[in-house]
């Protein structure tokens, strides 16, 4: 069964041109990163495993309308990865973030984040 592709693009050069061999594809359930020309490597991360999504747009990228999305995941082989130099990066970050939430809700997956608060004495009593 072919999944519906929500977004796909190539990594861009510094001038915003798609002259690279890195391809990104976002489906309803996974993000696929394919690299290489002669030796092709394809990494797949299930969306429910993505824990955090951050957008970075330094000046050089903003000039050419690009951005990089940094993802932290619970995937053992790919705990952190970047979706580098892509057009419409803010829109894509929001799309990815929404799909991650939707997939996590569908699979009933929750991330457990623990925060330790300490009072002024530093003994942890509230």
Features:
alpha+beta; PH-domain like; four-stranded antiparallel beta sheet
Give a structural overview.
With 126 residues, the protein is of the alpha+beta class. Helix content is 19%, strand content 37%. The strands form two sheets. Strands 1-2-3-4 form a four-stranded antiparallel sheet, with no helix packed on it. It has a three-stranded antiparallel sheet with strand order 5-6-7. The chain is globular, with a radius of gyration of 18 Å. The termini are far apart.
Report on the biggest sheet: 4 strands, antiparallel
Low-confidence stretches: 113-120
Structural class: alpha+beta
Q: Say which CATH homologous superfamily is assigned.
A: Pleckstrin-homology domain (PH domain)/Phosphotyrosine-binding domain (PTB)
What count of helical segments does DSSP give?
2
Our Rg estimate from Cα atoms comes to 18 Å
Strand elements, count: 7
CATH topology call:
PH-domain like
Instruction: Characterize the overall form.
Output: globular
* Fraction of residues in helix: 10-25%
CATH class: Mainly Beta
Distance between the termini: 53 Å
Q: How are the SSEs placed, and which strands pair?
A:
Blueprint: E1 5-10, E2 23-27, E3 30-35, E4 41-46, E5 50-56, H1 59-63, E6 66-73, E7 80-87, H2 89-107
Antiparallel strand pairs: 1-2, 2-3, 3-4, 5-6, 6-7
């Amino acid at each position: 069964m072919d999944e519906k592709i929500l977004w796909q693009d190539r990594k861009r050069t510094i001038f915003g041109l798609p002259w690279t061999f890195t391809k990104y594809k976002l489906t309803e359930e996974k993000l696929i990163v394919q690299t290489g020309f002669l030796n092709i490597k394809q990494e797949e991360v299930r969306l429910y495993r993505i824990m955090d999504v951050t957008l970075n747009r330094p000046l050089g990228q903003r000039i050419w309308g690009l951005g990089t999305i940094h993802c932290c995941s619970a995937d053992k082989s790919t705990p952190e990865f970047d979706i580098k130099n892509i057009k419409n990066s803010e829109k894509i970050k929001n799309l990815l973030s929404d799909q991650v939430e939707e997939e996590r809700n569908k699979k009933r997956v929750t991330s457990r984040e623990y925060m330790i608060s300490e009072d002024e004495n530093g003994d942890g009593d509230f």
